[in-house]
Amino acid sequence: MGDELTRKSASELAALVAGGEVAAVEVAQAHLDRIEAVDSRVRAFLNVDADGALEAARTVDKKRAAGERHGPLAGVPLAMKDVVVTKDVVTTAGSKILEGWRPPYDATISARIKAAGIVMLGKTNMDEFAMGSSTENSAYGPTHNPWDLSRVPGGSGGGSAAAVAGYEAPLAIGTDTGGSIRQPAAVTGTIGHKPTYGGVSRYGLIALASSLDQAGPCTRTVLDAALLHEVIGGHDRCDSTSINRPVPPVVTAAREGAAAGSLAGVRVGVVRELGGEGYQPGVLAAFESSVETLRGLGADIVEVSCPHFEYALAAYYLILPSECSSNLARFDAVRYGLRVGDDGSRALEDVMALTREAGFGPEVKRRIMIGTYALSAGYYDAYYGQAQKVRTLIARDFGAAFEKADVLVSPTSPFVAFGLGERMDDPMAMYVNDLCTLPASLAGTPAISVPAGLSEGLPVGLQIMAPAMADDRCYRVAATFEAAVERISPPAAVLT
């Protein structure tokens, strides 16, 4: 029964728990057993909170027995990216500088998940402070892709995506700064949605780049993503960037999209600049096949040009390092976290320098230095200021494109999952993994990645983008597409 439970979708598990056909404790235990069986090879989790998960599941069972009302995902297990603060559960952001830190409070996302009766299994591995595209920058070692354990699961949220792909959890939370939900989803054959910026609270996310960071769902079905989005979304007074508007009707859109089986009347824009040279042929072939599937579903396919998208990579890698150099200044060896060299013989500045040297990894140091330089006197306008102007031009490109199309589509990543260690010595080769996902991050618009078939036996993702606060369009088109294509899953032999 355990293996059967771990293969079910979140919505199926929720129905079984709500109907009393299976206990939430049984569901939680099945997933904990799965983690114990396979995670030594996948390494999706940094910390498994078995006692907390079983206690949360028992609470759901008690409430159901007492006839209390259930949330739509009550009793369903979830894997939480380790950048989301969780009270009394070790939270490290994948960094040695926070090793062993137990937060005294919950992020808004964590609180909403607990209130909904969702059972948190533990915290997932990630690139340190979400800086990376492969999860190899984690201070605690890399995560492995369940499709091929010699390959990366994407990043920075590779742990969350791998947990879902490997049937260790049906739901996961990721965060997306430049593609860190969507790109791991693409290379692990899962669903990943980046909500509209401000649509999900950032309160309690350990900040990388405050104008870009956005949490969202990672799942195995579009409906499950919509259900989780509805739980975590909505206005939060603790977040000054939170949008004070209702969550878009994402669940209704996902259900209607799957049921309709048609995209008649929907204008789908193919972005000219997100394809061609530099993309793997198999990825482009899968994308072209996906566009034909959308056409076959009745969509009106149009080509759109977004000329400033080609500058997204350069703009992003000025804006993000600049913001991270400011955000990471809080790790000063004084208030919390690691402290090195504090033996009474050194000045505070020396303790701070020794702590940061020991606590931060090479990619974090690289980006802090780039950002500090870009913000320095004499260079601010030339670099950071110019990058922000490009960001405005990219947002305008989106605005013009959405006058011609209801949604835009592209590959999610130019590549399938690459081998572990293959790109660690070449930062620029690593950065180009985000070519397709960066524009939506810079513009703050929603985007979803849905599996679009295989290339060389590995998953390829289709990215669907919509205007701000039109997340429901992403879900409708993704659900319709999902219902029309063959579902893919990792080779069983890899994790048996």
- Going across the biggest sheet, name each strand in turn: 1-3-2-4-6-5-10-11-9-7-8
Helix and strand element order: HHHEHEHEHEHEEHHEHEHHHHEHHEEH
The CATH topology assignment of the domain at 2-263 and 412-421 and 436-495 is Amidase signature (AS) enzymes
CATH architecture of the domain at 2-263 and 412-421 and 436-495: Alpha-Beta Complex
**Silhouette:** globular
Query: Which percent range fits the helix content?
Result: 25-40%
- Structural class label: alpha/beta
What's the CATH class label of the domain at 2-263 and 412-421 and 436-495?
A: Alpha Beta
**CATH level-4 homologous superfamily of the domain at 2-263 and 412-421 and 436-495:** Amidase signature (AS) domain
Spatial separation of the terminal alpha carbons: 16 Å
The average pLDDT value, as a whole number, equals 96
C-alpha-based Rg, rounded: 21 Å
Biggest β-sheet description: 11 strands, mixed
Query: What's the total number of strands?
Result: 11
Low-confidence stretches: none
β-sheet strand percentage:
5-15%
Number of helices: 17
Please give a structural write-up.
- Helices cover 40% and strands 13% of the residues.
- The chain is of the alpha/beta class.
- The chain is globular.
